[in-house]
């Protein structure tokens, strides 16, 4: 069930991946009318980037992930943020029916899947979660920008060059953040009978070289992480390729795709 996000990779993830701005949480809350009575399942919660701020808006968030190291860091982040309404469950998309037995039918306001849908069987997931969702609630599939090495900027191109030299092959992974991935999400939500809507939150933010390099190492499966010496060489190469700059500006586009469970007619 493990997916490679463990050990140092998990630490890089917690330290260097972006969280979500309040506008993303507003969009989620508005889409499903989320409030103080709602429980949300954040599937593929990682180190809690979305689960923890979301918990401030609802009754409780259940963060689910197959990687114990990611969950341990999420739990610690919740403690550090004095968040007391999160629970952390070791599991994966195929464990959703078990969660159904635990929580009961029509009990959740939303299932969120942020930067993790590419690991899951969409059709099965959207179908099996449906009985657990209260009317007007639903499923949100979220991307947090696109991978740092695949953006349409000079700094991203330079990073991609360094990364390709490090791994010795072209790097093309989009993690389903592209239009084709979003189309697959939309089609699967519609097939499962949800009403579909989408929105984008866009902002510019600084990206330090440290976060850029840490972001790359947070995306490499633990067993393929380079040696400490190769990581240092890579960091120096990235710095050179960016002409010694300490930071660049990243345009982050957060796509939110909503599938709403219909409210029954009175
Ligand atoms: C890129 S991280 C996303 C973390 C977080 N949601 C965020 O927005 O930053 C992907 C997460 O999905 C988890 N994952 C991988 N396969 C999964 C599966 N089949 N079911 C649930 N989560 C999975 C990984 O362990 C990892 O923590």
Using brief descriptors, characterize the structure shown.
24% strand, seven-stranded mixed β-sheet, Rossmann fold, binds S-adenosylmethionine, alpha/beta
Write the layout of secondary structure elements.
Layout: H1 8-16, H2 22-32, E1 39-43, H3 51-55, E2 60-65, H4 68-80, E3 86-90, H5 96-103, E4 108-114, H6 122-129, E5 133-144, H7 154-167, H8 179-191, E6 195-208, H9 209-217, H10 228-241, E7 247-260
Parallel strand pairs: 1-2, 1-4, 2-3, 4-5
Antiparallel strand pairs: 5-7, 6-7
Helix pairs in contact: 1-4, 1-9, 7-10
The structure holds S-adenosylmethionine.
Description:
This protein is α/β, with parallel strands linked by helices. The chain is 39% helix and 24% strand. The protein is built from 10 helices and 7 strands. It has a 7-stranded mixed β-sheet with strand order 3-2-1-4-5-7-6, sandwiched between helices. The protein is globular. S-adenosylmethionine binds at residues 3, 5, 17, 43-46, 49-50, 65-67, 70, 92-93, 114-116, 119-120, 144.
């Amino acid at each position: 069930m493990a997916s490679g996000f463990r050990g140092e990779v998990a630490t890089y993830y917690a330290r260097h991946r972006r969280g979500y701005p309040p506008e993303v949480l507003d969009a989620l809350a508005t889409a499903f009318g989320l409030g103080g009575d709602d429980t949300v399942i954040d599937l593929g919660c990682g180190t809690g980037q979305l689960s923890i701020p979301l918990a401030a808006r609802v009754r409780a968030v259940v963060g689910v992930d197959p990687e114990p190291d990611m969950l341990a860091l999420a739990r610690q982040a919740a403690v550090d943020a004095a968040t007391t309404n999160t629970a952390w469950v070791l599991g994966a998309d195929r464990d959703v029916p078990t969660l159904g037995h635990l929580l009961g039918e029509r009990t959740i306001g939303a299932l969120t899947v942020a930067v993790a849908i590419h690991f899951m069987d969409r059709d099965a997931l959207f179908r099996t979660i449906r009985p657990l969702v209260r009317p007007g609630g639903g499923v949100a599939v979220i991307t947090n920008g696109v991978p740092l090495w695949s953006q349409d900027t000079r700094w991203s191109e330079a990073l991609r060059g360094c990364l390709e030299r490090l791994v010795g092959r072209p790097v093309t992974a989009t993690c389903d953040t592209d239009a084709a991935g979003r189309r697959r999400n939309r089609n699967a939500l519609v097939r499962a009978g949800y009403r579909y809507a989408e929105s984008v939150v866009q902002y510019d933010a600084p990206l330090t070289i440290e976060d850029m390099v840490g972001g790359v190492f947070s995306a490499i499966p633990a067993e393929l992480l380079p040696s400490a010496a190769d990581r240092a060489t890579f960091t120096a190469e990235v710095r050179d390729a960016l002409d010694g700059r300490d930071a660049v500006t990243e345009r982050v586009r957060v796509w939110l795709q909503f599938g709403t469970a219909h409210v029954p007619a009175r």
